[in-house]
Design brief:
The chain has helices at 37-53, 57-62, 137-147; strands spanning 15-21, 71-76, 85-95, 99-108, 114-124. It is α+β, with helices and mostly antiparallel strands and 148 residues long. A five-stranded antiparallel sheet has the order 1-3-4-5-2.
């Protein structure tokens, strides 16, 4: 089954999908993914999202912009297990003057692309000293260009 058949129409554009094979070290004694790893996968998908735009997190930080996580939410709908292949979908749902809210959906490709997790993270836009700054226009333009 193609993941496209599971997509909801209102998922933000652009989006990125990051694929991952669950390692043994990410699981508990029952070989089910330990819950905190889903937040790490959100981070991996966010990094992939920026790379898809043509800028790594490091590139963005070199330009003096940082996006620390100030809030995170994760709803577990089903498990992922050792050696499952998961797909993490990521996009920006909300833009503030100085913040971003990313949303995520995780699908278990090994289980016919069953949606197993949803969530979001909120990020202020700060400079290297932690001072809140406006989301830079160059970033907004990169996202808009990719959405076209």
């Amino acid at each position: 089954m193609d993941i496209g058949t599971n997509k909801i129409d209102d998922f933000p554009k652009p989006e990125a999908t990051w694929e991952h094979i669950v390692s043994y070290g990410e699981t508990d004694c029952m070989r089910i993914v330990y819950y905190a790893n889903y937040l790490h996968w959100f981070e991996q998908a966010r990094s992939h999202f920026f790379r898809e735009l043509g800028q790594s997190y490091l590139d963005i930080e070199k330009r003096g912009v940082f996006f620390p996580v100030i809030e995170a939410y994760c709803k577990y709908l089903g498990p992922a297990r050792y050696e499952d292949v998961v797909l993490v979908r990521c996009g920006i749902e909300e833009w503030g003057k100085a913040s971003l809210k990313f949303v995520y959906e995780i699908y278990n490709k090994t289980q016919d692309n069953k949606k197993i997790t949803t969530g979001w993270t909120k990020h202020p836009c700060v400079d290297k000293n932690g001072k809140i700054v406006k989301v830079p226009n160059w970033l907004i333009e990169m996202v808009q260009k990719k959405a076209e």
